[in-house]
Amino acid sequence: MKELVSVIARALVDHPDDVRVEVVEKEHVLVYELHVHPEDVGKVIGKQGRIAKALRTVVTSAAVKVPKRVAVDIIS
């Protein structure tokens, strides 16, 4: 799952070397923290958050068999 987020994000940004994904496990949630270059935050979020929403949808769909809820946070 971590690689899925990374591959999608690297395809969207201008600075793919700065893309980093960290997994934070909380009580009932797995949070994938997507770190990108500050100039690329807008590209990952998209107009009105459409790309971020699509990324979250793909990750949630891919994590159907994971017993915890999955979330994606975008951090610059």
- How large is the share of residues in beta strands? 25-35%
What is the domain total for the residues?
1
What is the number of helical segments per DSSP (H or I, 4+ residues)?
3
For the biggest β-sheet, the strand order reads 1-2-3
Oligomeric state, counting identical vs distinct chains:
single chain
The CATH topology is given as GMP Synthetase, Chain A, domain 3
Largest sheet: 3 strands, mixed
Report Rg: 12 Å
Ends apart, CA distance between termini:
20 Å
CATH class: Alpha Beta
Percent of residues in helices? 25-40%
* N-to-C series of helices and strands: HEEHHE
What is the average of the pLDDT values? 94
**CATH architecture call:** 2-Layer Sandwich
Helix/strand-derived category reads alpha+beta
- The CATH homologous superfamily is called K homology (KH) domain
Describe this structure in words.
By secondary structure, the protein is α+β, with helices and mostly antiparallel strands. The protein has one domain: 2-Layer Sandwich (GMP Synthetase, Chain A, domain 3). It has helices at 2-12, 41-45, 50-62; strands at 20-25, 29-35, 69-75. It has a 3-stranded mixed sheet. A hairpin with a 3-residue loop joins strand 1 and strand 2. The two termini are 20 Å apart.
Brief summary of the model shown:
The chain contains three helices and three strands; from the N terminus they run αββααβ. Strand 1 and strand 2 form a beta hairpin.
